[in-house]
Amino acid sequence: MKKIGIVGFGYIGRYIFEHLKQNDEISVEAIWEPIAEKTVGLDQKIICKSLEELGTRPLDLIVEAAHADVVKELWLLITSGADLMISSVTSFSDKKFRDEMEQKAKKSGQKVYLPHGAILGLDGLRDGRALLESVAITTTKHPKNLGMLDSKITKPEVIFKGTTLEACKKFPRNVNVHAAIALAGLGFDNTESVVIADANTNKMQHRIEVKGQGLNWNLEIESFSAGAVTGSYTPASLYNSLLTVLSERNVFQIV
Ligand SMILES: NC(=O)c1ccc[n+]([C@@H]2O[C@H](COP(=O)([O-])OP(=O)(O)OC[C@H]3O[C@@H](n4cnc5c(N)ncnc54)[C@H](O)[C@@H]3O)[C@@H](O)[C@H]2O)c1
Question: How far is ligand 1, taken at its centre, from the CA of residue 216, in Å?
């Protein structure tokens, strides 16, 4: 039986928990969620009182589904040796944190998994890395899915154009796919990010344009908006990536 912990019991965390109820090979042994009402009715044995408590519980893998700031804190608090699968990929735009992560992982043997989340193609990008010349990603979402709750935007409007590093600082909850593309491809300084707010869409659209030696790729990925920041495909994608990781099949492993 594999033992897992979940950090953040929102749209993604709850989805994973509910789907694992039917699984007799994986057991959720710990949950850390600061809003207590969200975990009412669950077996109190699995509810942790702090992130630190979750980090000490004997677990095989912890799934982070909370916020980019939590990832950094969590990684350093894990004393149990558990591996980590992260949803909040923008956390890796912080080079100091990436270095700390690698150092700790080298010593402890822990693994950190980068699930493909809302998009596709990370494996192809990583495998073609030596050939890549330019990578750009354009995301179009409704203003409310970009955290712009009082937006007056009526027509589609480019609200950001710059490096993925800057996009992650500006939209830590909304450009996880940009961070994943940067990690797999040319890095945070050399990937171009464009964010468009469109009040007339209920979709989350990502257009990924890659050029390189002997290649020219255009990927268009759309899913329907479901959570505040999450599209309808993402929870299913993360859940199945979790199953893949725990079954020790071939996965995108970053450390
Ligand atoms: N990789 C991807 O493709 C992808 C796609 C969509 C969303 N995401 C990211 O996944 C994460 C979860 O998304 P969601 O839709 O489930 O969000 P959500 O808002 O529904 O849930 C997040 C939960 O985390 C909790 N939380 C906040 N601070 C916390 C902390 N310090 N410790 C523990 N829990 C904390 C919140 O109370 C909330 O219950 C977000 O960071 C989101 O940006 C990633």
Answer: 33
Same domain, 83 and 134: no
Do 85 and 143 share a domain, yes or no?
no
CA atoms within 13 A on the CB side of 167: 33
pLDDT tens readout for residues 123-153: 999 999 999 999 999 999 999 999 888 888 8
- 31 burial level (CB within 10 Å; 0-12, 13-18, 19+): buried
The tens digit of pLDDT for each residue in 70-97 reads: 999 999 999 999 999 999 999 999 999 9
206 is catalytic: yes
Which pair of structure tokens corresponds to residue 49? 């009182």
User: Which numbered atom of ligand 1 lies nearest the CA of 35?
Assistant: 37
Q: What CATH number does the domain containing 198 carry?
A: 3.30.360.10
C-alpha of residue 37 to centroid of ligand 1, in Å: 16
Tokens linked to 213? 């030696």
Same domain, 102 and 188: no
Could you tell me the residue range of the domain that residue 153 belongs to? 122-224
Closest approach atom of ligand 1 to CA 89: 1
How does DSSP classify residue 10?
A: S
Selection from 148, 115, 121, 127 nearest residue 221 by Cα: 121
Q: 0.70 exceeded by the pTM? A: yes
The total of structural domains in the chain comes to 2
Beta strands 26-32; 2-7: pairing state: parallel
Residue 253 counted as domain residue = no
Distance CA 119, CA 165 (A): 19
Q: What is the rounded distance in angstroms from the CA atom of residue 155 to the CA atom of residue 201? A: 10
Amino acid at 47: I
